[in-house]
Design brief:
Elements (H helix, E strand, L loop, with lengths): L6 E2 H8 L3 H10 L5 E3 L4 E4 L1 H11 E2 L2 E2 L2 H64 L10
Antiparallel strand pairs: 1-3, 2-3, 4-5
């Protein structure tokens, strides 16, 4: 391999879509060629090697890792959605607690008011309907 065409694993990851750790694993396994650069203590490879590996990875029009790639891409997208949703909930949580507390207290107040009115209204209505006198107790 020529030294002037070597790219870092970070650049290779950006080009190929694989992670830099996976590309390093491919180099160590001998699936793609790479060189160890001792000044940086890291592996380096070429873009041609990455392209050749990706082209050899395709079998019969379908990627060998197609299902896994689709699965982990979808899993990652759902995780990012969940994290975004939870960060939004985290910001709105104090407002939601106050709103729900006010709603519950207002329902309690309305039901209490209705119950007290029906209790007192029923007693007054019953007293007005009867013709008997109200007798105060004697002490």
């Amino acid at each position: 391999m020529q030294k002037n065409k070597l790219i870092s694993l970070k650049e290779a990851a950006r080009i190929s879509g694989y992670s830099s750790d996976y590309i390093g694993q491919l180099i160590r396994a001998g699936k793609i060629r790479g060189e160890r650069v001792y000044s940086q203590v890291s592996w380096m490879t070429t873009a041609e090697e990455l392209c050749a590996y990706k082209n050899n990875e395709i079998v019969g029009g379908k990627s060998v890792f197609g299902f896994a790639d689709r699965f982990f891409n979808r899993l990652g997208a759902e995780y990012r959605f969940f994290v975004g949703f939870m960060s939004g909930i985290k910001l709105l949580l104090p407002f939601l607690i106050v709103f729900i507390s006010c709603f519950v207290m207002s329902i309690f107040f309305v039901l209490n008011f209705i119950f007290v009115q029906s209790e007192s209204g029923g007693a007054v209505a019953g007293a007005e309907e009867s013709d008997s006198e109200v007798v105060a107790p004697e002490y």
